[in-house]
Specification:
TIM Barrel, globular, 8-stranded parallel barrel, 401 residues, 16 helices, two-stranded antiparallel sheet
């Protein structure tokens, strides 16, 4: 496994980070009159985490709200179990693993209504993670409104106290807004050690983008990348894209091309992958072993630019399956529905997507959307979700219904 400096933190984590946002799940029946409940498939997730650690992954990312609040609790227990398996011969296996692996989690800033919430939520997170401190603590999904809200509540003074007390190792933020907001946040404090931004070869000018990557690195911050495969979109292989990849001088899967492009940026510290299967863990670790800054040739970069143009011509809705629109008050499966809308055009597969749509529980279909607008406030891509739900219903609903 290759490693890079995490800015000025002194940490040198693996270039591949384990994202605990898209873990495998199992669906169980709920109480009468309620929809099915998704829970983390802990046996499968445990196996994935252990294998990632065995392959040299040393950066793990979670958040308060991932998997409806289950992710931190699972990770706290799973890391202790993994420590016993990997360091059972040590006096304190958990401490041995902690010395090797950095764990990052995030403060849900939208839940903070007063300064007292900083302590309350942080204490809950430490309890879930079964740790007295956290290696990396980020303000989650900052936008101008949420940043100004917690800034005015005194979040920077609070973070400074936690850093001084050793309860937070390194402090930063994850980001979903315009570049100008990103630079304002960067300039607001010298406490920032790192930031987490969305970046892939499709989104070079979106949100922080490449300009934000370089601005943060110039200030000495570590930069952690999320959505390197754009929520799985760039792992797909529609005909127009497949034909282009077939001309490549080096044989790679579409997912590897996407990851290698991000690792090619020398300012990148860690690339997070929200893996859902053991196979993805092993494949991505192999991709990471072949990565390097400025490793792609001019010919390869030109090919990726051509693929970018082909995807832009095919993508209908810019959804990355980040899940921030969930849970929907009406239970609508928004990311799955938008993915189906995109796949209709990408794969010229209207009938196939209509058939797949019938597998979705009726209470989670697009026609259940009431246009309440909650998702509009949370979508980092600025998608007009209610309008797209109406279009998706017209496009995908089984004929005759």
């Amino acid at each position: 496994m290759r490693h890079r400096d995490l800015g000025r933190t002194g940490l040198r984590p693996s270039v591949l980070g384990f994202g605990a946002m898209r873990l495998p799940v199992v669906t169980t029946p709920a109480a009468a009159g309620m929809g099915a409940v998704e829970r983390i498939d802990e046996a499968a997730a445990d196996e994935m985490l252990l294998r990632a650690l065995e392959l040299g992954v040393t950066y793990i990312d979670t958040a308060y709200g991932y998997h409806d609040g289950q992710s931190e609790t699972w990770l706290g227990r799973a890391l202790r179990d993994a420590a016993r398996l990997l360091y059972g011969d040590r006096r304190d296996p958990a401490a041995a693993l902690h010395a090797e692996v950095a764990v990052a989690t995030k403060l849900p800033v939208w839940k903070c209504e007063s300064p007292a919430d900083f302590d309350r939520l942080f204490a809950e997170q430490l309890e879930r993670l079964q740790r007295p401190s956290v290696d990396v603590y980020l303000l989650h999904s900052l936008r101008r409104e949420t940043w100004e809200q917690v800034r005015d509540m005194g979040i920077l003074s609070w973070a400074e106290r936690q850093l001084a007390a050793g309860r937070i190792g390194h402090f930063g933020f994850s980001f979903h807004d315009r570049y100008e907001v990103f630079t304002d946040i960067l300039a607001a404090s010298d406490l920032w050690d790192l930031c987490q931004i969305q970046l892939n070869y499709m989104d070079v000018d979106y949100q922080a983008g490449l300009r934000g990557l370089r601005a943060a690195a110039a200030r000495g911050l570590g930069v952690v990348i999320m959505e390197p495969i754009r929520g799985g979109q760039l792992a797909k292989n529609p005909p127009a894209v497949s034909d282009l990849w077939a001309t490549a001088p080096v044989l790679r899967s579409p997912a590897e091309w996407a990851l290698q492009w991000v690792w090619d940026q020398p300012e990148v510290s860690v690339v997070l992958s929200g893996m859902s299967t053991l196979q993805q863990v092993e494949e991505n670790a192999g991709f990471a072993a072949r990565s390097g800054p400025r490793a792609l040739s001019r010919e390869e970069l030109t090919l990726i630019a051509r693929v970018r143009d082909a995807y832009r011509a095919l993508t209908t809705v810019p959804c990355t399956d980040c899940g921030y629109c969930q849970p929907c008050p009406q239970g609508v499966a928004i990311p799955q529905i938008l993915e189906a809308v995109n796949d209709v055009r990408m794969f010229d597969d209207l009938e196939g997507q209509r058939e797949s749509y019938t597998w979705l529980e009726e209470e989670r279909r697009a026609d259940r959307c009431t246009a309440c607008g909650e998702c509009l406030e949370r979508c980092p891509q600025g998608i007009d979700i209610p309008t797209w739900m109406a279009r998706a219903d017209a496009m995908l609903a089984p004929q005759g219904e």
